[in-house]
Structures are given as structure tokens and as C-alpha cells.
Design a protein that fits this description.
Strand content: 15-25%
Strand order of the largest sheet: 2-1-4-3
Protein name: Ubiquitin-like protein ATG12
Family: Belongs to the ATG12 family.
Shape: rod-shaped
CATH class of the largest domain: Alpha Beta
Subunit structure: Forms a conjugate with ATG5.
CATH topology of the largest domain: Ubiquitin-like (UB roll)
GO molecular function, one term: Atg8-family ligase activity
Subcellular location: Endoplasmic reticulum membrane
Distance between the termini: 80 Å
Order of helices and strands: HHEEHEHE
Number of domains: 2
Largest sheet: 4 strands, mixed
Number of helices: 4
Helix content: 40-55%
Radius of gyration: 27 Å
Number of strands: 4
Length: 149
């Protein structure tokens, strides 16, 4: 009987076949099993990576926001802020009014991604999860006059 030396990935594959009992099935059945097994490992890897992503980047309790002026609105010196994730749009609007030194009669409009004005009771965590790209900050545009939707 002739024996050949097996090393590397071939050895691992042979061990895999012996452990799973796939040496007793036809080659096409083995291929189908391997596809399902690799698919399962891929899905498991995706779930683990998603969980790690949530733990590392989104569980900080803070939301990074980038404020951009639109139209004739005064430009802020500091444009990036880290705000508590439970802060509502109404609270953020009040803070922006203080920073810009606007009176109670002056209007201030906030827009998400140059698209729509969020409702005052929306939290910044919800807006970031729905409208921020990846792990970047939430982009909000502010204006003294109505600009979009």
C-alpha cells in the first residue's frame, strides 16, 4: 500500500471529513454539505462582527453631530459636537439658539442630510442609527429661514 505525505490544508480537510463522517457520502453530497457549512460559518461571522461593531462604536452613550450652516445662517466656530444619545431635537435646537445668541422670536430650522426637518421629539440616537453613514457623525444643517421640506 502506497502512502503519500499530506500537509497543510489537505491535512485539515481530511481531518474535517473524518470527523464529520463525510468520507461515507458521495462527492456531490459532500459538496452540498460543504456549501451549507461554509454559509453557516459566514453568517455566524457576520453576526459576531456586527455585535462587536455595536459594542465598540455605538455603545458609547454619545452621538457625534456635525452642524453645517445653510443660507444666511451665522457660521459656528465649533461645528462638531458630542451630545448625549438621549438628547432630543428640541433640546439640541435650544442649545444651538444659545450658541448663536438667537432671540425667542428668531426662527431656527434643523434639517437631516439636506432633506427633511426631524420632529422635535426625535432622539439623536434614532436619527444617527437611521441616517448617519456608517460610524461617522450625524450631519445636521441649520438655517434661519426654511430651506428644505
Amino acid at each position: 500500500m502506497r502512502t503519500s505525505k499530506v500537509s497543510g490544508l489537505q491535512w485539515l480537510y481530511l481531518q474535517y471529513i473524518l470527523v464529520t463522517g463525510l468520507y461515507m457520502v458521495e462527492p456531490w453530497e459532500r459538496a452540498i454539505f460543504n456549501c451549507f457549512f461554509i454559509g453557516f460559518i459566514g453568517i455566524l461571522f457576520y453576526i459576531v462582527c456586527s455585535f462587536i461593531f455595536v459594542i465598540l462604536f455605538q455603545a458609547g452613550g454619545k452621538v457625534k453631530i456635525l452642524l453645517k450652516a445653510v443660507g444666511g445662517a451665522p457660521i459656528m466656530k465649533q461645528k462638531c459636537f458630542s451630545v448625549n444619545e438621549s438628547t432630543t431635537v428640541a433640546e439640541l435646537t435650544a442649545n444651538i439658539r444659545k450658541i448663536l445668541k438667537l432671540g425667542s422670536n428668531d426662527s431656527l430650522f434643523l434639517y437631516v442630510n439636506q432633506c427633511f426637518a426631524p420632529s422635535p421629539d426625535q432622539t439623536l440616537l434614532n436619527l444617527r442609527n437611521c441616517f448617519a453613514a456608517g460610524i461617522s457623525e450625524l450631519v445636521l444643517h441649520y438655517s434661519l429661514t426654511s430651506a428644505w421640506g
